Amino acid sequence: MEHNFAPVDQVGTSPDTTSDLAAWIASAPLAALVTEFGGGPGDLAAEDLAAGDVSLADRFAALDRFSDRWDTRVDPTTGVARERNQADELPLTDSQVDLVLAAADAFGMREVHKPRHAEYDFVFMLGGLVRACLNRPAYAAHLVSTGTVTAKSIVALGGHRPFAGDEPELAAAAGHPDLVDEFGALDRGTTAAFGLREPDEVQGEESDLVGGAWDVRNYHTADGLPVTVAAAPSSDPENRRANTADSYDWFATRFAHVEPGQRVLAITTPIYVNQQHAAALRMLGSPYRVEVETIGNDPELVAPELQQHFSPSKYLMEIRSTVRAFRALLDSLDG
User: Where are the domains positioned within the chain?
Assistant: First the structure.
């Protein structure tokens, strides 16, 4: 069965983020996904219920619980969450595959969107798995070198995370066999993309806690553009490494000191745009009144050895991550 959905507007593009969230959860592709995977109105609270006594928060809570079935990161043996590249694949039918990809298209998870503006105060790249750490800085440098955007500062935000799964092999195939962790990969990707030499300044703090260490390396390009590569600490350092929200918060308070009215462009991978934009709205847009925009890098500009194919299972997993990110965003607006 062929599915054709109209594009769903990105949350945060209108002045009323709560209304954006309500429109997203009531969208046709989301309703189709819930129905296809065995859910009903109680798992989504469709439009007829939206007009009744079911609050938007309760609707997202129900959808969050329902989307557990799309989470393949948890190891079935140990119960421990794994990295994205170690997640299992769901046994999907051909019809489900077609529906998931059509929904991903409608949610903008497979599209490249050009920046809305030409000038930004900050352009930053988010770290992640090794390909992201090399591809995203390259795309940021492409936007700057082609004059698509200008920025007062470039920031690469990652964390201290050892490589897992096939990351060492991918790093070696890309010509970087010495890389062993996310921060090293993000630093390598950024220095290569922007033609940087030795850092002007290095700061940091080591820690025995899983999420306690942090690092900042300050550079400048040949034209004098400031470039920072940073590994943020976790807000829960005893139990986990830094997540996207931690990185945004640290970015705003530790070294950027953002001000109301400033403009921030975040670069990630298209599949992650919605959830990471939700975190940016929650941690930067609302509390600091900063204009935030999140776009994905262009896969057409990625070197062959760093190309990545995302399966329908991966899109389902990231739709679930988006649900959880939107739920957290809604909680922050209600609070």
Answer: 1-110+309-335, 119-297
Instruction: Provide the H-helix boundaries in the chain.
Output: 17-25, 28-36, 41-44, 47-50, 56-66, 94-106, 130-145, 167-173, 182-194, 244-250, 273-280, 286-288, 312-334
pLDDT over 70, % of the chain: 95
Positive or negative CA dihedral for 255, 260, 263, 267?
positive
Is the predicted pLDDT of residue 92 greater than 80, yes or no? yes
Identify the weakest region by mean pLDDT among 98-112, 251-265, 274-288, 304-318.
Answer: 251-265
Both tokens assigned to 260: 């109301």
Residue 218, CA distances (Å) to 78, 213, 235, 236 in order? 40, 17, 23, 26
Best CA proximity match to 292, nearest among 269, 263, 333: 263
Cα 107 to its chain centre, rounded Å, is 14
Q: How far apart are CA 115 and CA 298, in angstroms?
A: 12
**CA–CA separation, 260 vs 243, rounded Å?**
24
Instruction: Please answer whether residues 203 and 216 qualify as being in contact, where contact means their C-beta atoms are separated by less than 8 angstroms.
Output: yes
Q: Which of 145, 217, 153 is nearest to 187 (CA)?
A: 217
Phi, psi of 14 (to 5 degrees): -105, 170
- Given this model, what pLDDT does residue 53 score? 67
> Which pLDDT does position 272 carry in this prediction?
95
CA proximity to 144, closest of 157, 135, 154: 154
Q: Which class for 138: exposed (0-12), middle (13-18), buried (19 or more C-beta within 10 A)? A: buried
Give CA–CA dist 22/20, Å, rounded.
Answer: 5
112: left (phi over 0), alpha (psi -120 to 50) or beta: beta
Of 97 and 76, which is predicted with more confidence? 97
Region 280-292 average pLDDT: 91
